[in-house]
Amino acid sequence: MLQELPQALAANIQSAARLLTAPARICILTGAGISAESGIPTFRDKQTGLWEQYRAEDLANPAAFARDPQLVWSWYQWRRQLVHNKQPNPAHLALADWQDYAAQHNQSISLITQNVDDLHEQAGSTAAHLHGHLWRNRCSHCGISYEDKSRDFNADKDVSEDDSNFSTDLITCQHCDNYIRPDIVWFGEALPTGAWQHAEDAAANCDVFISIGTSSLVYPAAGLAQLAQQNGAKIIEINPNPTPNTIVDITLADKAGVVMPHLVQQIKET
Ligand code: APR
After folding, report:
1. Ligand 1 shell residues, CB under 6 Å
2. Which of 27, 49, 92, 114 is spaced 20 to 30 Å from 226 by Cα?
3. How far are the Cα atoms of 9, 182, 207 from residue 155, in angstroms, in the given order?
4. pTM of the model
5. Domains of the chain (ranges plus CATH)?
């Protein structure tokens, strides 16, 4: 199977698989790149259509919501429309398969994601979400969760939904009458304490840290690789493009959907 890949990539996958066969603790950080092959644009991709003139950073922040809640809410409803029928790709599926396999072979894999989609969960993985959940909402003032039964994060999604379920009408909180917002960590906001604590523990105590599909630009998540390395872990990066991450031991420079199935297969065969 590896023969179908460029020689250098195949050799690097074999080296990575050797590194990943023995260790007990593996920490994996995923970013938007792992969902790119499912058809979800990454954050650094230029936005399309109606939203072409906006940068994601200028909409995903509390000041933008305070200034123009309608604009920010409409953007998220558009993103939900874009994401609602997307399926896990071979990278998500290989990862979930590996988590199962690892559990039976005395390995633990902590999966941390910056993604707000639920494609890891759809694939069967458990992941700690550092940046929140696209399918959850909460009050922008009192913080109480707003349950939209049709879009419950854990409910089965009805992929036949049409645009009308993604109305751009603002919703107000039943308790304090302020606007409901997506339960997503915006630029300048603190990460959820539990998820961050878990991520720090997993990174600081792992033998190998794998960064998949992240530009490594947004902190504090981008600092997890450094934390792992300072504590003696080896670092593997899976990304078709170079990143500012300079502490990588093995780079697997191709799409996650290409690399992950081969990597997991090699781990099982090594
Ligand atoms: N496989 C692997 N990596 C890929 C693929 C692919 N098929 N396609 C693109 N990439 C890489 C890109 O080269 C890039 O380095 O994925 C990365 C995506 O980078 P970003 O868009 O910056 O996504 P991410 O790192 O997850 O962003 C971090 O920034 O906007 C905030 O909160 C948002 O969680 C997000 C955070």
Report:
1. 31-33, 36-37, 42-44, 56, 114, 131, 213-215, 217-218, 238-241, 243, 255-257
2. 92
3. 39, 17, 35
4. 0.93
5. 1-39+87-131+190-270 (3.40.50.1220), 41-85+134-184 (3.30.1600.10)
